[in-house]
TrEMBL record, chain A:
Family: Belongs to the FAD-binding monooxygenase family.
Example of a GO MF term: flavin adenine dinucleotide binding
Record key words, sorted: FAD, Flavoprotein, Monooxygenase, Oxidoreductase
Protein name: Flavin-containing monooxygenase FMO
Classification via InterPro entries: FAD-bind_Monooxygenase_sf, FAD/NAD-bd_sf, Flavin_mOase-like
Pfam families linked: FMO-like
Organism: Arthrobacter nitrophenolicus
TrEMBL record, chain B:
Domain of life: Bacteria
GO molecular function terms attached to this record: hydrolase activity
GO CC terms, sorted: membrane
InterPro entries in alphabetical order: AB_hydrolase_1, AB_hydrolase_fold, AB_hydrolase_sf
Keyword Hydrolase annotated: yes
Keyword Hydrolase set for record: yes
The protein's name: Hydrolase
Residues covered by the AB hydrolase-1 domain: 33-256
Keyword set, alphabetical order: Hydrolase
Stored Gene3D superfamilies: alpha/beta hydrolase
Length: 508, 281
């Protein structure tokens, strides 16, 4: 990890060169782009979106692997304030989602506020001027308010398998797909059977000579009710926008009604478990293979996946499911715990992302230079899933407890946008330049999350998932309540939890 | 019954009729919620989703209306007495949040009018106060099909209970489950008979409890106009419409839950006469 303190060492020089803005947003995915649009619509012009890559899009720019698609219906997995009647199908594929995001940015004129190739290397709170000093790979900024919208699934995580670096064949993470490497006729290995992997596996199987899937733990998979929308439907959504809004509400409330599955309610669990296990039984008749594909933990403990193509892939001659557990990797093979060996030409790593220890937290220094990652050394937490004591004028999007077990992250993102706009409005209306959540409010909020997390499948379902922080056993990435409660609790800014003041007050 | 873990079950006898009740027991200090089910029968059928959702935060009580033995008529007085007996047994001395659905809403109205001390707040879902011609036609068809032993009876129930859009948007598997459920359930002729003759408009106007009226836009059993009139009749009431058929407890249980949970937690957070807007998630 880059040492952000060094990056900010020549503070004065940086400040002199810095471009001054009211708001700086780190990241141009759904979070950063959505916030930028709503900021601009509110009349704010003084803001930048700092993006480390060469173009916008976040998740949907990076995950272009074969088969990439969303697994929440597109009419829900899109901004409510930018409806798209022409979604081609129920679950749009990656190119269509990326195009949607680009269209949103250009049609709203926020593309002009984006600064690409501008990786944020460090950010430091300047008490004297109540500003954030932000150093990027391409210039520095001074901003009254800093927002991290740098993603929760944006930094690929590689498995800690002995010898993995020795592998001489082609090797890449699913979120960094190498389209120059042809897999045609090759012996390919895929490590992982999570949400990305089950989209990739059926596609790779079609071209590879031999595909070996290395599974640590079998996922639950339910049918994917996907189809193309007809011209009549698309025109109807365009001509009668309330029909698309009704569809969005139907989808939202159907997802909301799944929450008791996560809270151990038998009638709910048995329905979804039956759906998943019947889907497996329908598609896989061989009892040995079926046993290997049957999960050994309570449903919902990890994400429930949706696919019609995943299971049938294992019926192909050229596909093998390996469940023995990997011992080590050599120059050209994966060696299993039982000593068996798979010779491979290419290895695709699909083992998720850095989630519990958010990389951006290693680059943000609050009051007294405190590093956010150090503040979070015993696990992440934030008041209203947004603000942290010791880090004035900082908002975190899609950070602690902002993930969902079943549902559209856009709902969370839009709630957080409303929260941030509410806070900005409050500062502006009252002439304040500094706001900091109190430690008590932050601790009370964390205690509330802990109470709600008790009795959920994530803590008690008997699986190892990225929802739980290994360092303290806390449920730190997921919201353990109904989604509507997220909006009630974290979508409306309430000043009571904050200490606020203006620069003038500070100087006296 | 598997409504909720650690459910307490028991029976009270009212007018010689056994009334089976269910109690989640643990609460948060706020008045317990008492759920009154609809015409088709049982607390579990109507509240399998709503009960656990509410029970995460508050104590929830429900019961199955008991029917008189030997084919005697069921009266509204019977039903009110049963609600009163369950409340007084399980939550003596403290008023409850009374939530009635469909026929249960009629009972809840009568209970709130006649026993105001029992009711801290009132939620009326797809209810009515005076049976109209549209309902009589439906009840007539129902009677005809039931008496002739027609297999179309369960399809008729399904057809009138659910909104067209909801049925069409189900997967084949979910639709079959709805069909099966509909075949297994039945309405008692004595309940139909009672529902022919509801006429309590004058009493409803005396209700003083803070009330939330919930109407269902696509309701083909109790037209949404009934809920709109209830909203007009009850002084301290607010109003919301849900995009669902009469089977709102199956079609939109989570939305219903959020409305109830927020309302009973702070009945006066909204003002009499307020109409809730439909929010877009
Ligand atoms: C394959 C895949 C499929 C998914 N499907 C769904 C789905 O169907 N439904 C759903 O709800 N969720 C889904 N998700 C979750 C998804 O991550 C979120 O829905 C959403 O896209 C997150 O948006 P974001 O803007 O918060 O983060 P991201 O999209 O990750 O964007 C973060 C941006 O910040 C930039 N950045 C990071 N660090 C820095 C830095 N230091 N300086 C400058 N820029 C930086 C990154 O380059 C990136 O562009 C999926 C995730 C993946 C990986």
């Amino acid at each position: 990890m880059m040492n952000s303190q060094n990056v900010l060492a020549d503070n004065e020089q940086l400040q002199k060169e810095a471009e001054r803005v009211n708001v700086a947003i780190i990241g141009s995915g759904f979070s950063g782009t959505g916030l930028a649009i709503q900021l601009k619509r509110s009349g704010e012009e003084s803001f930048v979106v700092l993006e480390r890559e060469h173009s916008l899009g976040g998740t949907w720019r990076d995950n272009h692997y074969p088969g990439a698609a969303c697994d929440v219906q597109s009419h829900l997995y899109s901004y409510s304030f930018k409806p798209k009647p022409e979604w081609s199908r129920v679950y749009a594929r990656q190119p269509e989602i990326l195009e949607y995001l680009r269209d949103c940015a250009t049609s709203e004129g926020v593309d002009r506020h984006m600064r690409f190739d501008s990786e944020v290397l460090g950010a430091a709170w300047i008490e004297e001027s109540n500003e954030w000093l932000i150093s990027t790979a391409n210039g520095s900024y001074l901003a009254r308010v800093l927002v991290t919208a740098s993603g929760h699934l944006s930094d690929p995580k590689y498995p800690n398998i002995p010898g993995i670096d020795d592998f001489k064949g082609a090797k890449f993470h699913s979120a960094r797909w190498d389209h120059d490497t042809s897999l045609e006729g090759k012996r390919v290995g895929v490590i992982g059977t999570g949400a990305s992997a089950i989209q990739i596996i059926p596609e790779v199987a079609k071209v590879a000579g031999k595909l070996t899937v290395f599974q640590r733990s079998a996922p639950y998979v339910v049918p994917r009710m996907d189809r193309e929308y007809s011209t009549a439907e698309k025109n109807m959504f365009a001509r009668l926008p309330h029909t698309a809004e009704k569809l969005r509400r139907d989808l939202f409330w159907a997802g909301e009604a799944r929450f008791p599955q996560r809270r151990g309610i038998e009638s709910f669990i048995s329905r979804v478990e039956g759906l998943a296990l019947d889907h497996l039984a329908d598609q896989i008749k061989d009892p040995d293979l079926r046993a290997k594909l049957t999960p050994d933990y309570a449903i919902g403990c990890k994400r429930v996946l949706i696919s019609n193509e995943y299971y049938p892939t294992y019926l192909r001659e050229n596909v093998e499911l390996e469940t023995q557990g990997i011992e080590r990797i050599t120059e050209n093979a994966v060696v299993m715990k039982d000593g068996s060996k798979h010779d491979l030409d290419a290895l695709i790593v699909s083992t998720g992302f850095e989630t519990s220890d958010l990389p951006i937290s290693h680059r943000i220094h609050g009051t007294d230079g405190l590093l956010l990652a150090d503040h979070w050394a015993r696990g992440e937490q934030a008041y209203a899933c947004s603000t942290v004591n010791g880090f004035p004028n900082l908002f975190i999007m899609n950070g602690p407890n902002s993930g969902l077990g079943a549902g559209s992250i856009i709902f969370v993102i839009e709630s957080q946008i409303d929260y941030i706009l509410g806070a900005l409005d409050y500062l502006h209306q009252n002439g304040y330049t500094r706001m900091e959540v109190t430690q008590d409010a932050e601790m009370d909020f964390a205690a509330m999350i802990d109470r709600n997390a008790q009795g959920t499948v994530w803590l008690e379902g008997g699986c190892k998932s990225w929802y739980v922080d290994e360092r303290n056993g806390r449920l730190s990435t997921i919201w353990p309540d109904f989604m509507s409660r997220f909006r009630d609790s974290n979508g409306v800014f309430r000043p009571e939890a904050y200490e606020v003041r203006s620069l003038a007050e500070q100087k006296v | 019954m598997s409504l909720y873990p650690d459910l307490k079950e028991g029976t009270v006898v009212v007018d010689g009729i056994d009334v089976r009740f269910y109690d989640s027991q643990r609460g948060n200090g706020e008045p317990p919620v008492v759920l009154l089910h609809g015409m088709e029968g049982s607390a579990e059928k109507d509240f399998w989703a709503l009960f656990p959702m509410l029970a995460f935060t508050r104590r929830v009580i429900t019961f199955d209306f008991g029917l008189p033995k030997d084919g005697q008529d069921l009266t509204l007085e019977h039903c009110v007495a049963q609600a009163q007996a369950v409340i007084e047994k399980l939550a003596p001395g403290s008023p409850v949040a009374l939530v009635g659905y469909s026929f249960g809403a009629v009972v809840a109205e009568a209970t709130a009018a006649r026993k105001p001390d029992l009711v801290a707040s009132l939620v009326l879902i797809a209810g009515w106060m005076k049976t109209d011609r549209h309902q009589l036609v439906r009840n007539g068809i129902w009677r005809e099909l039931a008496q002739s032993g027609s297999s179309a009876l369960s399809d008729f129930n399904l057809y009138s209970s659910y909104s067209a859009h909801y049925l069409c948007a189900r997967t084949e598997r979910d639709f079959q489950e709805i069909v099966e459920k509909s075949r297994r359930s039945s309405i008692s002729p004595v309940v139909i008979k009672l529902s022919d003759n509801i006429d309590i408009g004058a009493e409803v106007q005396t209700i003083s409890a803070p009330t939330l009226v919930v109407g269902c836009i696509h309701d083909q059993i109790v037209d949404v106009s009934h809920s709109r009139e209830l909203f007009g009749a009850i002084r301290d009431s607010r109003y919301v419409e849900i995009e669902a058929g009469h089977a709102v407890v199956q079609e939109r249980p989570a939305e219903l839950f959020m409305l109830i949970d927020n309302f009973v937690a702070a009945p006066h957070a909204t003002s009499p006469g307020d109409v809730y807007a439909t929010s877009t998630p």
